[in-house]
Amino acid sequence: MDGFWYKEWTQGRRFVIKITPGEQIRERLQQFAAAARVKNAVIVSAVGSVKNVAFRGIKAGAKLPITEPRMHQHQAAGPLELLGLDGNLITDEKGDIDCHLHILVGKSSGEVVGGHLFDAQVFATCEILLTEMLVEGVERHPSKSGGVATIFIDEEA
Amino acid sequence: MDGFWYKEWTQGRRFVIKITPGEQIRERLQQFAAAARVKNAVIVSAVGSVKNVAFRGIKAGAKLPITEPRMHQHQAAGPLELLGLDGNLITDEKGDIDCHLHILVGKSSGEVVGGHLFDAQVFATCEILLTEMLVEGVERHPSKSGGVATIFIDEEA
Amino acid sequence: MDGFWYKEWTQGRRFVIKITPGEQIRERLQQFAAAARVKNAVIVSAVGSVKNVAFRGIKAGAKLPITEPRMHQHQAAGPLELLGLDGNLITDEKGDIDCHLHILVGKSSGEVVGGHLFDAQVFATCEILLTEMLVEGVERHPSKSGGVATIFIDEEA
To answer: How far is B115 from chain A (nearest CA, A)?
Structure first.
């Protein structure tokens, strides 16, 4: 294909996940996936509140690949409203689940900040609705040209 | 479970909902749920534009539980682009549908604000795609320690 | 119905789509829909990074319909983290797929901007999870009163 790739997948199980105050969202999502034997999944919805949010943004004018000097890392103590958590859990080439998550959080001023999520702690609550993806031939690998781990679809080879 | 809870649910009906200009989104979603006899649901996608958006953020440094002195309430007259509406509709312990919605809206400057949604009026249009959740043993209850109503999963007891 | 309309739809196929660096997201989504013969769909999740993002916001105090003098158009060179891409693909009255997309992007400062998307180029990667909607009697038409193209549900007539 020219410029894009796509693959059909089948919907597996559906889960509601609630993460306890004080816990790390990304770490607990990985543990959930291991406990429920989920290999691939997509987050449909997430609401709640968070604190100690570690995320990054890409510097304006940066070139590919994305390297550490080309990003800014942030730490927001909060607490903050959790306004968006988009992302997917895809098995990598070693068979481990890899979460690719982007976060949007709201300050008390109403201002919204966010970026590529390293991790965040739950403040009052965190409710996640997630769909398991049943699919073969889709894996997460590091992309040398992009500098990030990304989905690879087998037909791309 | 340690640090998180999860439960499987089954996908019910799928709906496209269009809310008329001037109407309150949260109120109309509740009426939709009553009309379609939906007990639990998750918002998959929402686009449109809004005005008179009432929402809140949590003050930096606030402790749990979230109480009124620990939040800032906002009223944005707009109109504003509706850029995100994440949330779920869960039946509470009285059998009423309770919407937990977080909103993201864009100003003409491009700046994005948002928070926990009280309610908002539709400006030009509002298109919502929603999935019914079929599940037993999941309810919304007030959390004394958190100060907010949140999902409780029966195995937590 | 009074104040809102709704219609049930059936879930069709599920797709993972990966758009190549340098490509236009909106244009490639339209091409994907044509290639996979998808008539109606909703974006469930999108993560990645973008550059040259063209979007618009509505001016504060604007009246309906939304016309060009009542909006501000923006061009963000980036690169920026792609933090949200909400929207749907609905067939219009001419049988063409029409994408209604709203975007949220994060700057290196952590600040988030966004609005109604004209188009954006992929920077490092763009991973989209999408659900096909099987439904009759739902079309996108221009709304004279609103100034935008929106979903029309047949029972509205």
So the answer is: 6
Kindly list the partner chains of chain A, i.e. chains with 3 or more CB atom pairs below 8 Å.
B, C
Alpha carbon distances (Å) from B100 to A45, A116, B78, B97, C122: 11, 25, 22, 10, 33
- Consecutive 10-residue averages of pLDDT for chain C (157 residues): 90 97 96 96 97 97 94 96 97 89 97 98 97 93 88 76
Flag if B15 and C3 touch (Cβ within 8 Å). Answer: no
Structural contact between residues A112 and A104, judged by C-beta atoms closer than 8 angstroms: yes
Average of per-residue pLDDT across B93-116: 95
User: Which residues in chain C have their CB less than 8 angstroms from residue A8's CB?
Assistant: 13-15
Cα separations (Å) of B126 from B48, B80, C5, C33, C92? 4, 12, 11, 23, 17
Is the CB of residue A36 less than 8 Å away from at least one CB of chain B? yes
CB-based contact, A101 to chain C, within 8 Å: yes
In the numeric block, which tokens belong to residue B57?
């953020």
Tell me, yes or no, if the pTM score tops 0.90: yes
For strand B149-153 and strand A112-134, is the pairing parallel, antiparallel, or unpaired? Answer: unpaired
Q: How is residue B62 annotated by DSSP?
A: P
Contacts 24+ apart (CB under 8 A), A70-77: A70/A147, A71/C108, A72/C108, A72/C109, A72/C110, A73/A118, A74/A113, A74/A115, A74/C110, A76/A52, A76/A105, A76/A113, A76/C110, A77/A51, A77/A52, A77/B60, A77/B61
Are B156 and B5 in contact by the 8 Å Cβ rule? The answer is yes
Which amino acid, A29?
L
pLDDT at A24: 98
- Residues ≥6 apart with Cβ < 8 Å to B93: B139, B140, B141
Q: What pLDDT digit, counting tens, does each position of B59-79 carry? A: 999 999 999 999 999 999 999
Length of chain A: 157
